[in-house]
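hi!! sorry for the late reply, been swamped w classes. u asked for the two structures so here they r. pasted raw, havent cleaned anything up. first the sequence of the first protein and right below it the tokens
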Amino acid sequence: MPQQQTRERIYDLYTAYGKGRLDFVLNSFDDDAEFISYAPINVFPYLGRRHGKAAIAATMKQAHAEFEHLSWQPIFLVVEKSDAAVIVLARLRQHSTGRIIMLLVAHFIRFRKGLIVELREFMDSFDAVQQVLGREIDLSKS
């Protein structure tokens, strides 16, 4: 797939994800895809390592059940051959508290035959945890 076409497709996928159109997004994943989120699973138990489209679908559905996605906007995108790196500015509302969470998320995506076969996710998890918990983490107790 040409790089410009990949760029446009990625923007479409992120727009769809932000709007909760998960079926559209999942159609871009290989059945045997790997999703790895380097986030603390004691705070985000639906993240971590997921294998296969069904497991990835469950993760996406749980993320949307936990948070209303107010915006999910790529602010930086690099595409090279069958790989892409995306930085997303996420603005979320936590359903359980109504708290607004803002964070940057980095995605590294690998395509094969036009489908996503691997997505690795990194976030400033320290900041995200503080926002989700609604308090600063006291490091003096460690």
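now the second protein. again sequence first, tokens right under
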Amino acid sequence: MRLFSAGLLAVLVVGRASAAVDVPGTTAVRGKPAANAVVWLEAPGAPAKSARPKAVLDQRNLTFSPRVLAVQVGTIVEFPNNDRVFHDVFSFRDGKKFELGLYPVGVVKHVPFDRAGLSRVFCNIHPGMAAYVLAVDTPYFAVSDRDGRFTLTAIPAGTYTYHAWRPGGDILTGSTAVRAGASLDVAWP
């Protein structure tokens, strides 16, 4: 995965230090909230921490849900077909490459995301279906909600390199100091 620093704006508000803190933040594009942006911290040597060793990218009403899924490397992503038609889910371009083949309603396929990278996910039968799975090599990551808000949880205090990605945007990179009361606001120009 290539990392870019393109027009990065980051604002950090710092308070008192503590052992592990939650860091709330926002993502924006040209001043408007950016939904479905992924923010993660580099943390070499951090213990594997996955509250959900499995994640789900559902198929329903000819749509993937969620549109953007962030997972820690090593996570198995389930692809259930909860639609009323067959699907053929695949990712050939970047990140994890796979094709699940044609499968009917009620069947669940599994894909281990065993290395960091962005996977663009599509359906061979329904060209309008698209989603993203971003596998990151850190336990510290979050996806912004529709209002551009996110929270990085249980982060040990310290200084980190952070990255932020959104569909259609470059990966932004910066540095942040994590302490009690800190927040992280990331914006694309």
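hope this helps!! also noticed smth abt the second:
The radius of gyration is 17 Å.
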